[in-house]
Amino acid sequence: VTTKSGAIVVGVGDELLAGRIDDTNARLLSVVLRRAGYPVLRREVVGDDPDAIAVVVGRARADAAVVVVTGGLGPTGDDLTRFGIAKAFGAALRRDATAEATLRDAYARRGRPLPPGSLVQADIPEGFAAAPNARGTAPGLLRAADDGVLLAAPGVPAELEGMLDEILLPILATRPERGTPPKALQITTAGLAEAEIGALLSDLLIRGRDPIAGSYPKSGRVVLTLETFREGADADLALKVDAETIRDRVGSAFVGFGDLKLNEVVVRAAIEKKTTLAVAESLTGGLVSDGVVEVPGASAVFVAGIAAYKDEAKRAVLGVRAETLDAHGAVSEACAREMAEGARRLTGADVALATTGIAGPDGGSIEKPVGTTWFAIADAAGTVANRRVFLGGRAEIRAYARERAFDLLRRRFFGLPLDSAVKDGAGS
Ligand code: ATP
Ligand code: MG
Question: Do 238 and 211 form a contact (C-beta atoms < 8 A)?
């Protein structure tokens, strides 16, 4: 048994050092390991160099109970993690028969010949086990011993995630070095900016409080996290009291408990209510349709997505009137309404949503600055429209518009106001 605690995370790859990719694996590991009772003590990034990997891994295993290395496990010449780890442990590499069979089988099932050199992925340092990779070919390297745990996982985020859930976390749950993780609860909000949420919850977002609340803006939503180090029923009660306060104060911006995606919330609600959906998109050009189709089961409710970009297409396909376009332009309440109504008529869907806006960088004016977006929803009760002006570049504006479209559908589905009441900032 060791006196070490906590975890160290090591990212391997020249691409990380060169800044060509972001070390999002480290971020994921920081969150996951902390929740598992192993707060991350240090993160390191090292290039594709076995000697450098050996040094960093040797130091990490001396300092922490858990070491997770990601990247460099593949079959190519720059995948050198296994050699670095073998060196750090003074272990020889041995061909693992099960890992070899799994690799051969993976290719055989796809009817592809095994690429030369790829069996190196079945070479495992002595004292390590091959960790099965349910989402890819390269197995991980796992060592769980009295002096600590080390997992080397592939760099591909989905493969890493699978290995954490299926292999590492079950082991970490039983180790003596495990610390008390905080109990946490998340709340997803949409329709209010982070600063607006902050103003509503200023007394809860104070450092040193327990539970402590934090807010994390994601595209179009704000996810609030409550954490407590209290124990047992006391912890549950404290989280519940704060969660209810938050729910009450944010009102219609409350989406639900957990880190929820708006497209999933909307499509699941549509499936449950047996409400069919159509989308007519200008500014978002298919992003909203894509968000609908992303959700399993969407085929039960999604009738059609129409990307009508030019005025002629809005007229010819959706039946937007020429007079409307002449008098108000394509980025207008009237056009959004006619797009939604046209899409509903054309597809026979119960609910149709439309987007039209200015993504920039050009095309803005004083009255209609870049980012101006009109949304409309047509359903059996009539048609409603809503406007937002999004800030950012073209990509951000379109991404925000997509999320706002789903929030408006959520609000319409659940009979909520399209806009949350905003607390007046004057004097506070
Ligand atoms: P493969 O078998 O795919 O080669 P690997 O274990 O060798 O997997 P790398 O070659 O290092 O992993 O990285 C594969 C890809 O995984 C990278 O191109 C990158 O997209 C992603 N990746 C690697 N490391 C990270 C990281 N730290 N954070 C986020 N993504 C990463
Ligand atoms: Mg690789």
Answer: yes
Predicted pLDDT at 219: 82
* DSSP bridge partners of 68: 9, 151
Residue the block writes with tokens 């990601």: 70
- Asked whether 73 lines ligand 1 (CB < 6 A), one says yes
Whether 140 is in the pocket of ligand 1, judged by its Cβ within 6 Å, is no
Residues 82 and 89: beta-carbon distance below 8 Å = no
Q: Residue 207: its pLDDT value, please?
A: 84
Query: Could you give the C-alpha distances from 52 to 49, 87, 90, in angstroms and in order?
Result: 5, 10, 15
Q: Which ligand is nearest to the CA of 77?
A: 2
Starting from the edge strand earliest in sequence, which strands make up the sheet with 372-379, in order? 302-307, 277-281, 351-357, 372-379, 382-389
E strand residue ranges, 86-147: 93-95, 123-125, 129-131, 140-145
Long-range contacts of 163-170 (CB under 8 A, 24+ apart): 163/131, 163/133, 164/29, 164/32, 166/132, 166/134, 167/131, 167/132, 167/140, 167/142, 168/68, 168/142, 169/32, 169/36
- Going by pLDDT thresholds of 50, 70 and 90, the confidence category of residue 428 is very low
Instruction: Enter the pTM of the model.
Output: 0.76
How far does the centroid of ligand 1 lie from the alpha carbon of residue 70, in Å? Answer: 7
- Expressed in angstroms and rounded, the spacing between residue 85 Cα and the centre of ligand 1 is 17
CA of 21, nearest ligand number: 1
Tokens of 390: 């999004």
Closest ligand 1 atom to residue 13 Cα is 11
> Using 50, 70 and 90 to split pLDDT, how confident is the model at 184?
very high
pLDDT digits (tens, 9 = 90+) for 261-291: 999 999 999 999 999 999 999 999 999 999 9
In a 3-state reduction of DSSP, which class is residue 197?
A: helix
Cis peptide upstream of residue 182 (ω within 30 degrees of 0) = no
